[in-house]
Amino acid sequence: MALDRPAAPNDLHAFWMPFTANRQFKKSPRMFVAAEGMHYTTADGRKVLDGTAGLWCCNAGHKRPKIVEAIQKQAAELDYAPAFQMGHPRAFELANRLVDLAPDEMAHAFFVNSGSEAVDTALKIAIAYHRARGEGARTRLIGRERGYHGVGFGGISVGGIVNNRKVFGSLLTGVDHLPSTHIPENRWTRGQPEHGAHLADELERIVALHGAETIAACIVEPVAGSTGVLIPPKGYLKRLREICTRHGILLIFDEVITGFGRLGSPFAAQHMDVVPDMITCAKGLTNGVIPMGAVLTTAEIHDAFMTGPEHLIELFHGYTYSGNPIACAAALASLETYAEDGLFQRCADLAGYWEDGLHSLRDCPHVIDIRNMGLIGAVELEPIAGAPTQRAFSAFLKAYEKGVLIRTTGDIIALSPPLIIEKAQIDELFSALREVLQAE
Ligand SMILES: Cc1ncc(COP(=O)(O)O)c(C=O)c1O
User: Fold this and answer.
1) Which of 55, 122, 305, 320 would you call most buried, defined as having the most Cβ atoms within 10 angstroms of its Cβ?
2) Above 80 in pLDDT, residue 9?
3) Does the beta carbon of 253 lie inside 6 Å of ligand 1?
């Protein structure tokens, strides 16, 4: 396939790649140069089926005309407007659309540029909210082992992935962690596992240890994605909600992955019928096309700040690109595309087919667990003794050679295709994966 650009840059030296084995990559680079629908195109002209929606973000697939057009039009009309003390209509329109899509209790949207910023913003709002209400001692933050909340200092402090934390110093003080909900009894579960709701009660233990009056918020991913797809046990999130409510602790759902239809509802909160006090989102907000995130809050949280003289700034927080006009245009067009294509319902309709295909890999060599929810799936492999991550990474490389993009974290293969995936493409994905795993 002729491409009107160089196949690969001459020198790969300068770019320090994120979350990548740089030296290994640069010896044998894998470059995408185009994308459309369910496929990427590699620098050597091969098509690769996108089994991961980019990085859990291109929920409507690639190069969607409405989104492309909206970005082009917005860039030509209003490229940038100052985010502080000035506004532009698209940001207000988007905030309204977002709170309409979210659970009824969500009444306000604060715009940021990534999931990491959404998390740090939500944590700051939580602490400042309590202070605004005269409970300034509530500064502790509770996360969860194996949680991923991005890479800001707040996010890695409440997060529970050791490699993301251990070389970065003392992190935030006053943070504690719930235990992971991932327990061996739940192996091979389809959808939400039966065992483990009681793990929410660990929050009671933490409350007893520190005193509720010192705790600002508890943040969890409704379904943990980046750490290897950990599905919450039945009843767990409801129990966490009850304990938070009982102790005046804000519950934050980090929906950076689960937002925008990944489970078949706009947000996991609706899917699980549990209403948090704040929702963080990003990724699918703009279909991954332009960096953008948001924190959604209840009216109660927002209104606690709306006191004092009206000419004073209520929250000393924000980013140069909060509500950037082009990002807003991309987000509005993404939400329209999701609605026009009925993608959230499509995800719900496909979830059973996806689940069956995924679990059909159970008999493949070295597979020690499979789990799924909505259009998310994980195949966990037995690590090679003394060489953790290698088996899954080798599967990733083989799958790429076969024309299928998967993602690995540790020895877990994580899958999260665009919600436009066809049944035949689900079959293609799993049969490629079967061949890969049989060769491992
Ligand atoms: C749950 C969750 N929170 C936060 C983030 C961080 O998002 P970003 O990479 O946009 O900063 C991610 C990214 O995968 C995520 O999965």
Assistant:
1) 122
2) no
3) no
Q: How many CB atoms neighbour CB 34 within 10 A?
A: 16
- Helix, strand, coil percentages (3-state) for the chain, rounded to 5, are 40, 20, 40
The last residue of a domain, from among 293, 320, 340: 340
The β-bridge relationship of strands 215-220 and 250-254 is parallel
Give, for ligand 1, the residue of 56, 120, 149, 279 to mutate: max count of ligand atoms closer than 8 Å to Cβ: 149
**Cβ(148) – ligand 1 distance below 6 Å:** yes
Work out which ligand 1 atom sits closest to the CA atom of 283: 10
DSSP string for 16-68 = --TTS-HHHHHHS---EEEEEBTEEEETTS-EEEESSHHHHT-TT-B--HHHH
Instruction: Out of 114, 221, 256, give the residue to mutate to test ligand 1, the one with the largest number of ligand atoms within 8 Å of its CB.
Output: 256
Q: Describe the strand order of the beta sheet including 32-36 as a list of residue ranges.
A: 32-36, 39-42, 47-50, 404-405
Q: Note the pLDDT tens digit of each residue in 381-399.
A: 999 999 999 999 999 999 9
Residue 9 lies in a domain: no
pLDDT at position 270: 98
Alpha-carbon gap, residue 44 to 207, rounded angstroms: 56
Confidence (pLDDT) at 155: 98
Share of the chain above pLDDT 70, in %: 98
Residue the block writes with tokens 């079959």: 427
What's the rounded mean pLDDT across residues 243-257?
98
**Structure confidence at residue 218 (pLDDT):** 99
92 CA from centroid of ligand 1 (Å):
24
Q: Residue 265 is part of which domain span? A: 68-340
Q: Identify the pLDDT of residue 307.
A: 97
Task: Look at residue 2 in the predicted model and tell me its pLDDT.
Answer: 46
Kindly give the distance from the C-alpha atom of residue 150 to the centroid of ligand 1, in angstroms, as a whole number: 4
Task: Among 311, 340, 369, give the residue marking a domain's end.
Answer: 340
CB atoms within 10 A of CB 163: 8
State whether the beta carbon of 266 lies less than 6 angstroms from ligand 1: no
**Residue 135 shares a structural domain with residue 189:** yes
**How many domains are there within the chain?**
2
Structure confidence at residue 131 as a pLDDT band (50, 70, 90) = very high
